[in-house]
């Protein structure tokens, strides 16, 4: 028996959780069997363990349980550190998971930063909501606490790219470069079958752009029987306008209006790329607009980038290894909350880069509340905005956004920074898959319904047998 069940990132972008079960039979998992399964009869591997983000209905899934018993899991494999792929781990461990969590070394370093930051923000937000009395829940509680996040760290097991490792008896895996953020990987999994060839799986993870700054190109996939592929931008291509031209226009407006350009950036990947591109642009144009990186997590994550020079391009070596600053001479790093609050008192042309990238929490909310009503200001969205987030509302032209229980007017100019996305678009996904013979089964995941369906049609035209699963769908695959 080989069963694959989709407990997240199915019909939606977030909450990536794919459960692979291997064994002689599922005695207890079948309704009405009346039998109790022993742990040894079935082995269970979870690929990714992410948080749901976006609409309230999705976020509430984080509180409803993962859809399986964490105590019955044998191992977890992480494709990368972003919260929609790793952010549920503290809850999983708190609820009884005790096995190893396999990941690349850079992912392990980033997970430590991201999970503790996520837990701290949840605790602070719950405390703030209780103090101000605007939560629907009495009292407001964090999904997990910092102590829960710390319990994850000893369970991380680092694996090198390109090297097969044993997950448990009969199942092995290997990481391949995905080019999304530092440490990201696609994962090959092979499941042994008595008297037959192993069944080969390929979990794409999030596939990155080609020729992107600070990350390598994704490695070409190898032959596989079952493909699980992301479809975030499966129905569109990124606009061709160079990022440098867009940034130049944004900075020029800030200079003309002597105002702020507020960038909502993911602390891992996007913030580093933005800082690098802004630094390069200002060197070329001989500008001196102050850039404020208001994200302790982004600062810590940049140190991780410096530890793994083999995972980013040569163009970034001087930028990341500067003695005075890891960012540049006109870039200011802000660690404390007081430093962050003082940024709102500054005047003149300036850039503020803060997370979170979808404006779901963190320091960006305080800056947004301060600057969204100002028509001279520019709010810049730097990546994918999940439906139901403040970023998606701004992207759609919402006249107000709700922040900490209050509706805030949006008079600032809102811009989408195209081309800086860390996700491959439709053409890049098809380029990545071009040399791959059609698998026996292809599952389209990590996408909203429109993009997922569009990528499925494109791959069907290339001979793939595609399926767009829903959350909770399970598939028996041993017969392939």
Written description of the protein model:
The structure is a single chain. By secondary structure, the protein is of the alpha/beta class. It has two domains: 2-236 and 422-476, Ribonuclease Z/Hydroxyacylglutathione hydrolase-like (Metallo-beta-lactamase, Chain A), CATH 3.60.15.10; 243-416, Rossmann fold (3-Layer(aba) Sandwich), CATH 3.40.50. It is built from 14 helices and 22 strands. It has helices at residues 56-59, 83-86, 89-94, 105-132, 146-152, 243-257, 270-285, 296-307, 317-320, 337-342, 364-371, 390-395, 426-433, 449-460, and strands at residues 2-6, 18-23, 42-47, 75-77, 101-103, 156-158, 165-168, 171-177, 185-193, 196-203, 226-230, 260-264, 290-293, 331-333, 350-354, 378-381, 400-403, 406-409, 413-416, 441-445, 466-467, 474-476. The N and C termini lie close together (11 Å).
Briefly say what this structure is.
It contains 14 helices and 22 strands. It has about 475 residues and is of the alpha/beta class.
Number of helical segments?
14
Structural class: alpha/beta
Q: Would you tell me the overall average pLDDT?
A: 88
At the first level of CATH, the class of the largest domain is: Alpha Beta
| Percent of residues in helices | 25-40%
General form: globular
Largest sheet: 7 strands, mixed
Report the radius of gyration as a whole number of Å. Answer: 22 Å
* Poorly predicted tracts of residues: 25-39, 322-326
| Count of spatially separate domains | 2
CATH superfamily of the largest domain: Ribonuclease Z/Hydroxyacylglutathione hydrolase-like
CATH topology of the largest domain: Metallo-beta-lactamase, Chain A
């Amino acid at each position: 028996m080989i069963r694959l069940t989709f407990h997240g990132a199915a019909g939606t972008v977030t909450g990536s959780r794919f459960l692979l079960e291997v064994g002689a039979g599922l005695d207890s998992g079948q309704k009405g069997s009346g039998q109790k399964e022993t742990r040894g009869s079935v082995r269970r591997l979870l690929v990714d363990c992410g948080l749901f983000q976006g609409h309230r209905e999705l976020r509430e899934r984080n509180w409803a349980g993962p859809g399986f018993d964490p105590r019955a899991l044998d191992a977890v494999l992480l494709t990368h550190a972003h919260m929609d792929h790793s952010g549920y781990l503290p809850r999983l461990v708190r609820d009884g998971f005790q096995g190893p969590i396999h990941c690349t070394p850079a992912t392990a370093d980033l997970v430590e930063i991201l999970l503790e930051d996520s837990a701290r923000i949840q605790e602070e937000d719950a405390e703030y909501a209780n103090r101000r009395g605007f939560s629907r829940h009495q009292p407001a509680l964090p999904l997990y606490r910092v102590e829960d996040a710390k319990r994850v760290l000893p369970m991380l097991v680092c694996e090198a790219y390109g090297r097969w490792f044993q997950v448990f008896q009969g199942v092995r895996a290997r990481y391949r470069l995905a080019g999304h953020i530092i440490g990201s990987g696609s994962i090959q999994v092979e499941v042994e079958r008595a008297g037959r060839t192993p069944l080969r799986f390929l979990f794409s993870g999030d596939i990155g752009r080609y020729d992107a700054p600070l990350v390598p190109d994704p490695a070409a996939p190898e032959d596989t029987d079952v493909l699980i592929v992301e479809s975030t931008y499966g129905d569109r291509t990124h606009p061709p306008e160079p990022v440098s031209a867009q940034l130049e226009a944004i900075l020029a407006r800030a200079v003309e209006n002597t105002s702020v350009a507020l960038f909502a950036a993911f602390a891992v990947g996007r913030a580093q790329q933005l800082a690098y591109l802004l630094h390069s642009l200002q060197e070329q144009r001989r500008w001196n607009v102050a850039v404020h990186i208001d994200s302790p997590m982004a600062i810590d994550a940049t140190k991780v980038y410096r530890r793994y020079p083999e995972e980013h391009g040569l163009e970034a070596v001087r930028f990341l290894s500067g003695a005075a600053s890891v960012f540049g001479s006109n870039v200011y790093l802000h660690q404390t909350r007081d430093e962050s609050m003082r940024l709102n008192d500054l005047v003149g042309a300036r850039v503020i880069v803060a997370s979170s990238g979808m404006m779901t929490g963190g320091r960006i909310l305080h800056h947004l509340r301060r600057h969204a009503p100002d028509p001279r200001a520019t709010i810049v969205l730097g990546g994918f905005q999940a439906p139901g987030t403040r970023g998606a509302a701004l992207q759609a032209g919402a006249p107000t956004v709700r922040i900490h229980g209050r509706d805030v007017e949006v008079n600032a100019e809102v811009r989408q920074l195209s081309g800086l996305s860390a996700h491959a678009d439709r053409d890049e996904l098809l380029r990545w898959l071009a040399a791959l013979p059609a698998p026996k089964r292809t599952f389209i995941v990590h996408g909203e319904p429109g993009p997922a369906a569009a990528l499925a049609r494109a791959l069907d035209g290339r001979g793939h047998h595609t399926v767009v699963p829903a959350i909770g769908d399970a598939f028996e695959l041993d017969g392939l």
